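Exercise 7 asks you to align residues with tokens for two separate proteins.
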Amino acid sequence: MDTNHPQFTTIDEYIAQFPPEIQDRLQQIRKLVHEIAPHATERISYKMPTFETDGKVLVHFAAFKKHIGFYPTPSGTEQFAEELSQYQGGKGSVQFPLDQPLPLDLIRRMVLFRAEENRRAAEAKAAKKPRKNP
């Protein structure tokens, strides 16, 4: 990701800066997120595409010179640690090399996991709110 580019305000603007083959990969991830979480909202956060559900970050992604960075939060990478062990990454992040196909099934399962995690957190928060008596 080239941080010398102007600030982006939409995911479309972010994706448009890259060559077509990178745009295609980014759009694949974007489409997959919307298939799994059609109610997800899009925004730019930390200078990268971000999706939120239930008021919490679902995932982020970004393009770099040699990889696509995917950020399913620490819980997302912990849940899939064994499958992610073949990739570079850190706490809450994984790097999918550009010279390999995107592991769309794995990305799908991580997004599903995160969407369910956010849903449960929102339900738990709602259950804690005191109800007003009429």
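Second protein for Exercise 7:
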Amino acid sequence: MSPSSKIADRIPVVHAFIRQHGRAPTLDELRQLFGVRSKNTASVMAGKFVAAGVLARTPTGRLVAPRQPAPCRLRLLGSVAAGFPSPAEESLLDTLSLDDYLVTRPESTFMLKVDGDSMIEAGILPGDTVLVERGRRPRNGDIVIACVDGAWTLKFFHRDAKGVRLEPANRKYPTIRPRETLAVEGVISGVIRKLL
């Protein structure tokens, strides 16, 4: 990455470093991460990360990760029958962080609110929130966010001998085949629905 790259392009790299190491990078580590030779360039870059809220400085000037709330960890107590009833058995199996459970690549994941009913047979309802992973190559059967001929949609992705087709999960809607352009923005990695 060249020294002239925009700071916004570098933020995901710093976030990934903090997640991996549990701390902020030093100036030397910033130089290594971004391939810059000058300590002054690394210092200026650090100042931009501080101004953007990505990093913070202690009163002594040391770089630190800004305080963030700890991820919510919930108790996993077992399983429940969704078919025939079975005897209840509760035991603490584990605790789960919803952040870690739902999002494997935070630097490339974003959320969108679902508007419309074309995916209801896939269990995606109007008002749901979908987690979208950017940068993952879609495979047949993946649910994707795509821009088709200038319009955005949420559909199943399929590639066949005729090209790409986007399939709804509602019989009321037709299959979509791009006439001119298709850009897949991301692959759906999860659906969030609050019931209460």
